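Please describe the entry underneath.
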Amino acid sequence: MRPHAASAARRRGSLRLRLILAGAVSVLAALALAAAGLLVLFERHVERRIDQELSVHLDQLVAGLDRTPDGALVLVRPPGDPRFAVPLSGLYWQYEDHGAGSAQDAVEGAIQRSRSLWDFELALPAEGEGDPLPHRHTIAGPGDTQLLLLERVVELRGAPVRVAVAIDRREIDAATRAFGLDLAPYLAVLALFLMAAAVAQVSVGLRPLAAVRDGLAAIRSGRRTRLGDDFPDEIRPLAGELDGLLAAREAQVESARARAGDLAHGLRTPLQVLAGDVERLQARGETEIAAEIETVALSMRRHVERELARARLASGRGTATAAPAAVARAVVAVVSRTPAGSRLDWQVQIAEDARLAIDPDDLAEALGNLAENAARHAVAKVRFTLDPVPDDEQTLRETPRLVRLAVRDDGPGIPDDMIGPLTARGGRLDLAGGSGAGLGLAIVSEIAEAWGGSFVIENRDPGLEAALCLRPAPSGE
């Protein structure tokens, strides 16, 4: 997969990114809806203010009308707003004298309008005709404009007069647009604030999942054995299922260990019988057949022990810890009773409070194999030591915080060119040099690797040092 494609796939798979994007879209949609509502409310507010202004102009227009003695309708006091005198200013008045009888026939239907209308006549709607209550309309104005009109019918000395004032709606639209432009920066700041709040909310909401991740990492490294139930209600069932899965896996591992032990007992007895047959054949002088059987038996033993170790270590690194001093003493107590071990001085130079991240049984098996090999080649002394791995070696192995649990003898050592084959997977000292040692070195290496460490062999002056580089157990365990 190409780098940009992999990056895009990661972004699509990010729950955090999905939640943040969903929050951002929701915030923008909500603010857009709020902006539209505020503009509508502002427009309605401006229209109400315009209505009040038109009502004042209408009252002034009515108050300024009068009739002459011959019944003619005249505007004695025109409204005071100077826009009425400016052509096409956007503010207009008009009145129609409907007359009051035969005496008014000469003036019936007369229409007068403000100078601002110039030669345009307002087409007053028929629905307000004859109604004394004010009516509000939207009508066509001069120059293809839309006017907001307020009109009413009044009785003036017995004759009805229809008066009206109007204002260009463009003033309302301009005020609304200005309000929208003033509102936009505040909405932008509010959007940024709400998006930041959404990011914070997502971070807080996903924190329990990070706690689950950290808990699993702690379980994997051996610092914990279970997640526990210290989680919110929504996460607690997940943590419980994971703990149940861990418990079931541990039960399966224990069952596998038990089956491996049973298999070991079942196979070692036939191998011991073959070993006895080899001795009897050698005693009878049939060395060639004995050598063949011994080779086959050793190969069988090697494969059986390796497969048993793999079965036992199939679960990988666990959460167990071991006290290397106690395990080393237990191994010495057994090996020192063998013919090869009884002649040696066994020294355990390990702190009693030291702890390693490894199962005690696995550590005992690894140290047992190393102790048996050391007993075969040591001259007088075998030492068990535990020291930190130097920083340069830890960097080289890319496994920081390792300690070195070494088994060192004072024997002749081995040629340097044989160390590589020995430490390689499947390497054996008996195949390389015929000493018969090293049958369990592959198992030792696999045990170390299963617990996140490594196995190294180095010549010393004098002797040979075989070491397990393992992680120390977390403090408090």
Observations:
- The radius of gyration is 50 Å.
- The chain has three domains: 64-169, 222-315, 318-477.
